[in-house]
Specification:
- Its EC number is 2.1.1.233.
- Belongs to the methyltransferase superfamily. LCMT family.
- It is an enzyme of class 2 (transferase).
- This is [phosphatase 2A protein]-leucine-carboxy methyltransferase.
- There is one protein chain.
- Helix content is 47%, strand content 15%.
- By secondary structure, it is an alpha/beta fold.
- It is globular.
Length: 231
Amino acid sequence: MAESRSNRAAVQATNDDASASYFSRWAAFRKLLAQFLESGISSNETAQPNKQILSLGAGFDTTYFQLLDEGKAPFLYVELDFKEVTSKKAAVIENSSQLRDKILGANSSISVEEGQVLSDHYKLLPVDLRDIPKLRDVVSFAGMDPSLPTFIIAECVLIYLDPDSSRAIVNWASKTFSTAVFFLYEQIHPDDAFGHQMIINLESRGCALLSIDASPTLLAKERLFLENGWQ
């Protein structure tokens, strides 16, 4: 009985740690995003200057719809992911009036088959991020303006790509957008006890961290950006 209670306590502690980690990630992300969206607005201005957000490997994230509800949505919000992901997300949006009604208008369309959602201020598009020429074309098709302030999101995305692809994306972004912030959230320290277990758990699910050894520390990740055009 004592062992059972101990196991339950261990599970609860693990769940609490995971919840704290998720909240910390969300809080840090939303704080930086708010700073970006609010920058450049003087106290006597009512209109927000045009800004855009590019989410790489967006998955099923709902940040755009949250910002819309809060009255903080940027001029343009573009989400990119593999077609199998964007098709499922397009279906979710199409089948949810709560989401669909927020984006549909005269210039809006949803295609589950193509994995696309197109509207004036929100775009969901399929692309393999490793294909830089195609990435360049998709971002252009989305109507992103390289001269506008841009917030680029990559949450647990680059770490799953091979190091050359990760570097190429970071380099492409620095050359494409004249004023940008790159929000990177991903794993570090694969050699400590926690990191070792993390690697085992992810690999058992077929989710190898292909770039973890190329940038295993915060310093290494900073170097990745500094060497590819970022300040």
